[in-house]
Write a structure and sequence with these properties.
With about 130 residues, the protein is an alpha+beta fold. A hairpin with a 2-residue loop joins β4 and β5. α2 crosses α4. It starts with a helix and ends with a helix.
Length: about 130
């Protein structure tokens, strides 16, 4: 169902080096943690779907659906939040997502990490428990 609604991106496929339990390749160990947790819980998702906003294509990390309600969620993992330019670009992107109805804390899930505070499976699990 989700694959009919969202086309997965084929952008920079060579950058996807981490294998998930579902057998797909993602860009980072943190994205693999998220994908694996979604997969283990039977939560359908599309990795890096194409979402067009005002004629610009964005590729959030995940779009997922609550298996019980069908409610859609976007999930962005912010892996370099100790880099100011990265953080600023992320927040600019969230402004565009808001225009399309993806609202932080409602249907836009965000997780983050820095070198000092790495992302863990507990972080992924807590985010899923909170939203779904």
């Amino acid at each position: 169902k989700l694959n009919n609604m969202f086309t997965p991106s084929t952008h920079k496929l060579k950058g996807r080096s981490v294998l998930t339990l579902r057998g797909e390749r993602v860009r980072s160990k943190s994205e693999a943690i998220i994908a694996d947790e979604l997969f283990k819980r039977g939560i359908p998702y599309v990795y890096e779907p194409i979402v067009e906003i005002n004629g610009i294509e964005y590729m959030p990390d995940f779009i997922l659906a609550d298996p019980e309600t069908g409610t859609l969620y976007m999930w962005e993992h912010l892996g370099l939040m100790d880099k100011n330019d990265y953080a600023c670009r992320a927040f600019d992107k969230f402004k565009q997502y808001q225009l399309e109805g993806w609202t932080l804390g409602i249907n836009l899930i965000t997780t983050s990490e820095t070198r000092e505070f790495p992302f863990t499976g507990q972080n992924a699990s807590a985010a899923i428990d909170y939203f779904l």
